[in-house]
Amino acid sequence: MNKYYPEGKLIAQSSxxxxxxxxxxxxxxxKDGMILEAKAILCDTDHNLIVDLPCCRGVIPRFEGAIGxxxxxxxxIALLSRVNKPVCFKVLSIEETGGETTAILSxxxxxxxxxxxxxSKLMPGDIIPxxxxxxxxxxxxxxxxxxxxxxxxxDAISVSRxxxxxxxxxxxxDITVVVKAQEDDRIFLSHKELLGTWDENARLFKPGQxxxxxxxxxxxxxxxxxxxxxxxxxxxxxxxxxxxxxxxxYIKSIIPEKMKVKLIIVDVFDDxxxxxxxxxxxxxxxxxxxxxxxxESSRKIITTF
Length: 305
Fold this sequence. Notes:
Helices cover 12% and strands 40% of the residues. With 305 residues, it is mainly beta. The protein has 3 domains: 103 residues, CATH 2.40.50.140; 73 residues, CATH 2.40.50.140; 72 residues, CATH 2.40.50.140. Strand 4 and strand 5 form a beta hairpin.
């Protein structure tokens, strides 16, 4: 059973709370080599992280803050950005100085263990949990375990194209991802393969229905409306429509052999509330191949892992 999780997953667990509650339980956790979590409350002027422990002062020295800090491959912003967030760590020592007890902690050691025992064993097609950490125009960065980051390129987020990852995700969101490849301790991820095939998504709709959607693209030949993250339909051109607007659309026809959904826009409107709940069709295990296209279609869209 996997025991390595994105940061923030352990902090509320009873075993974690018990381990950091007292000096004796923290000492036991050190002996057992446990990975624990607590909130980082401060990054001092030397970029040491101060961690909120119930039983004593907790310190993650700068070089113990993350893999790569010591050789400069990881920038110090990786430490500063953890303030007011959970951090994982292993206990290196418990020291008494001038009447104050301090636990010396290492996030780097937790990451090294996770890399050796978990990340190095991941295979293409493995489906794993992740947590969104930040969003850039080109993709979504996620924590796959112990603060170790990986990237989902924007074109791998969903079949329905989006202009920015914020259209699909939000920071702190727990998602499921699939491993595309591994190279030199780097994990390459995808996401769209878990959101269902064309058939699986189209099955949720019927001609004659009027349903909600989001305008994703405006072309000279029509307007693409997203019905689900992995399903979009085409409506005829219409004035005063903008990308990102919500719509109500009438489903004119669903054509599996062409993988097309023809729509008529009933109304468009602005609404800041966007539901970013994701419905996954695959949530665990390993997949060697995923085919989005229908059996009736001559155009094949296949991902091989």
